[in-house]
Write a structure and sequence with these properties.
Strand content: 25-35%
CATH architecture of the domain at 405-442 and 596-792: Alpha-Beta Complex
CATH class of the domain at 405-442 and 596-792: Alpha Beta
Number of strands: 35
CATH topology of the domain at 405-442 and 596-792: Phosphoribosyl-aminoimidazole Synthetase, Chain A, domain 2
Strand order of the largest sheet: 8-10-7-11-9-12-13
Structural class: alpha+beta
Largest sheet: 7 strands, mixed
């Protein structure tokens, strides 16, 4: 068959769909003809990075995805794990970065709606959401507008839907000024006997369209999400969907009822790429075809053409394959909930996606060409680390101003360490996020045990289903813990170590509330993989995630890839974000009476440091790299204005030992509070425990005889070292210390005791290093973000 060499589209029209010239030639070869307008759009969205992972799929294959608790791994709408006692937990994280950059409220709101649909499409009822957010410098009015809009959007959708927002993280850095990150994670408990899968089956079975109507909102959203942001991106507002949380609340109830009938063969939510993605993926996964008639699709706008139907990302829509003869049963359920439900197609034997419109074939494409057999790029890695990384690694602490026991020497003045501590507590990344989470309902459903700001991870009560065989009502109450984590500055400076650190901190946060880490969902937010540095960052970060997840026995059950997160700076140069592989992790608490928060509980309780002790902060290394360092630290960025250095080396073996000791102490009832040392190091961790518990602490910094020239800033604010600060009942001191001596040998230290009113840190000879009333520390920490937002 001879194909005309002249495409019916201009190069600009092809490029506008996100398709490269060689990809267009591939499309023509596969079809044996040029595509029509609708087909070109279908290939554009399905061959976008957002849908087919054409640059990242080879890297994702190295992730560990299996484990004794994994029931569903990557490839479905969400991962599912076995939590025991007959409970199965579905969870997933996804991004809505570019939509939130151009329309923050709806971009963030529909990001929440989309991740909730991923959960209940599996047959699970959503019980919690978390979010991971990144914004630029709050001194800029645009950043303030984006922050306020995103938070309002998340609050609106979650609160109206009726799911608690139980945790999250928020970072502020100039690297995200033009391209904020909005990652949403959701968790659900399976309500159906069988996990609902997405592969179509049963030749002749009807295909039902259910939910809301289709409009022109969200046009080409998948392609939009896979392109760099430019000054013209504001014109792409039609690519941002508009959500209706009240309609989605009806949708989840109708879907779960329909699933329980046993009439649903397969289900797929219409998220990215809408009808195109749902039909193609269901057909490809089932090894069959789907024929869909657009004339039967409920619409809310007139004059729509196939291209618009197929690329619309209107929200709150689903596609079902239903057992033949049971259509009326399913339709009746949705109509009772005030939702559309129509037979719009059928499963066919030929493995194609055939789209009908006004009695004609509007599109006909092999399903595998859209959803499985897509372009894959195996890119070459840089032969050596890029210059920026090598320059950063060459940085040394000796380039910093000298410091003394009394403070930091700077321009002839001594800045007391207490003032430096206040400076760090005033940083938006470290400061209280109460202004944000106050807008979220985190108690709806009445299962939240530990919510935002109370502990290092969220804790949700697991209520066993009455139908679970062998369940004994009134038994031990179990819990699920969840967190999202990533220090992107570490990843920027060293992608491999930084990604390992993200996994380690997520697991550490779960361990701080007494939870055993179980599994991971990840959101890989990076710049362009087509640029050598961007791909180097992505490849090494994926390796770090894989190695850490394997070592900590937390398999990856799914996730999301968001690339091309770049904008153009004022000089017209591309400006990528920091590489940000966000790790969402869930853990299990067998008995909710054995959990704790981060605040001190009682004056007189003893305070311990688990992990690298104070006297080893300058000497503990792994392969010659320091475990505790100022490299990449918040102190270095906030006080010295530098984002450089080699970040902390991650000792995963030490992480496992320290976290196991923390969990054991909590289970035994010895540990009353636990808080990990993260941004800001030991001094900030102690201050945060003081603020959270509204009590002070008396800390003695014991140094070795050879450490008289210790860098006090590293000792106080250095980061890393697998460190957790815990408080213990004095009555349990002997048992606790005997246990630590057996399990952690020399990687723990008693620091002092909880006291009223003030945080006091002294040397072993009684010299004061830091002293501050807890009320003063709390005032700085509590108002930092609100003061900056008030600039408007």
């Amino acid at each position: 068959m001879t194909v005309s060499s002249t495409p019916p589209f201009s190069p600009d029209e092809i490029a506008a769909e996100g398709i490269k010239p060689d990809e267009y030639e591939d499309i023509v070869r596969r079809l044996g003809r040029h595509p029509n307008r609708a087909e070109l759009g279908m290939f554009g969205v399905m061959w976008s990075e957002h849908c087919c992972y054409k640059n990242s799929r080879p890297l994702l294959k190295q992730f560990p995805t299996e484990g004794p608790r994994v029931l569903v791994g990557p490839g479905e709408n969400a991962g599912v794990i076995d939590a025991g006692d007959g409970l199965r937990v579905a969870f997933k994280i996804e991004s809505h970065n570019h939509p939130s950059a151009v329309e923050p409220f709806q971009g963030a709101a529909t990001g929440v709606g989309g991740i909730l649909r991923d959960i209940f499409t599996m047959g699970a009822r959503p019980i919690a959401t978390l979010n991971s957010l990144r914004f630029g410098d709050l001194r800029h009015s645009r950043t303030r507008r984006l922050c306020q809009g995103v938070v309002a959007g998340i609050a609106h959708y979650g609160n109206c839907f009726g799911v608690p927002t139980v945790g999250g993280e928020v970072y502020f850095d100039a690297a995200y000024t033009g391209n904020p990150l909005v990652n949403a994670m959701a968790i659900g408990i399976m309500e159906t006997d069988d996990i609902v899968k997405s592969g179509a089956a049963g030749i002749g079975n009807p295909v039902l369209y259910v939910g809301s109507t289709t409009g022109r909102d969200g046009m080409g959203g998948a392609s939009f999400a896979s392109a760099e942001l430019t000054d013209e991106s504001e014109a792409d507002r039609p690519a941002v969907q508009v959500g209706d949380p009240f309609l989605e609340k009806s949708l989840v109830e109708a879907c779960l009822l329909a699933f329980k009938t046993g009439a649903i063969v397969a289900a797929q939510d219409m998220g990215a790429a809408g009808l195109t993605c749902s039909t193609a993926e269901m057909a490809a996964k089932g090894g069959v075809g789907i024929e869909l008639d657009l004339d039967l699709i409920p619409v809310r706008e007139t004059g729509m053409v196939p291209y618009e139907y197929l690329l619309s990302e209107s929200q709150e829509r689903m596609l079902f394959v239903v057992a033949q003869g049971r259509e009326a049963e399913v339709i009746d359920i949705f109509e009772r909930w005030g939702l559309h439900a129509v037979v719009a197609g059928r499963v066919v034997e030929e493995p194609i996606v055939r789209i009908l419109f006004q009695g004609q074939t509007a599109a006909e494409i092999p399903a595998l060409a859209l959803a499985e057999n897509t372009p894959i790029y195996h890119r070459e890695l840089l032969p050596e680390p890029p210059a920026y990384a090598q320059t950063a690694w060459a940085w040394g602490e000796d380039s910093l101003p000298p410091c003394e026991l009394t403070g930091l020497s700077q321009q002839g003045d001594i800045i007391p360490w207490t003032a430096v501590l206040h400076t760090l507590l005033d940083q938006p990344t470290i400061a209280s996020k109460a202004w944000i989470y106050r807008q979220y309902d985190h108690q709806v459903q009445n299962n939240t045990v530990t919510g935002p700001g109370q502990g290092d991870a969220a804790v949700i009560r697991l209520r066993p289903q009455e139908a679970v065989p062998g369940h004994q009502p009134g038994g031990v109450s179990r819990g699920l813990a969840a967190t999202v984590d990533c220090n992107a500055r570490y990843v920027y400076l060293h992608p491999y170590e930084g990604a390992k650190a993200a996994v380690a901190e997520a697991a550490r946060n779960l361990s701080c509330v007494g939870a055993l880490p179980l599994a991971v969902t990840d959101n890989l937010n990076f710049g362009s993989p087509e640029k050598p540095i961007g791909y180097w960052q992505l490849a090494h970060a994926c390796q770090g995630l894989a190695d850490a997840c394997r070592e900590l026995e937390t398999p990856v059950t799914g996730g999301n890839v968001s690339l091309y997160n770049e904008t153009v700076d004022s000089q017209g140069n591309p400006q990528p974000i920091y590489p940000t592989p966000v790790v969402g992790m869930v853990g299990l608490i067998e008995d909710l009476t054995h959990t704790c928060g981060q605040g001190w509980q009682q004056a007189g309780d003893l305070i311990y440091l688990l992990g690298v002790p104070v006297q080893q902060t300058g000497t503990a290394t792994l392969a010659g790299k320091p475990l505790v360092t100022l490299g990449g630290s918040e102190y270095l960025a906030a006080v010295h204005g530098q984002a450089t250095g080699y970040p902390p080396a991650i000792n995963l073996a030490l992480e496992k030992q320290v976290q196991a000791a923390c969990r054991h102490g909590i289970v035994q009832g010895w540990v009353r509070s636990a808080h990990d040392c993260a941004e800001g190091g030991l001094a900030v961790a102690l201050a945060e425990s003081c603020i959270s518990g509204q009590r002070g602490a008396r800390i003695q910094l014991t140094l070795g005889a050879t450490q008289t020239n210790q860098r006090w800033d590293r000792l106080l604010f250095g980061e890393g070292g697998a460190r957790i600060v815990v408080s213990v009942n004095p009555g349990d001191q002997d048992e606790w210390e005997a246990y630590l001596g057996r399990e952690l040998t020399d990687t723990w230290q008693r620091l002092g005791a909880v006291q009223d009113d003030a945080l006091t840190m002294t040397t072993q000879t009684g010299e004061t290093v830091i002293t501050a009333p807890v009320a003063a520390l709390a005032a700085t920490w509590a108002t930092a973000i609100e003061r900056r937002l008030a600039a408007d």
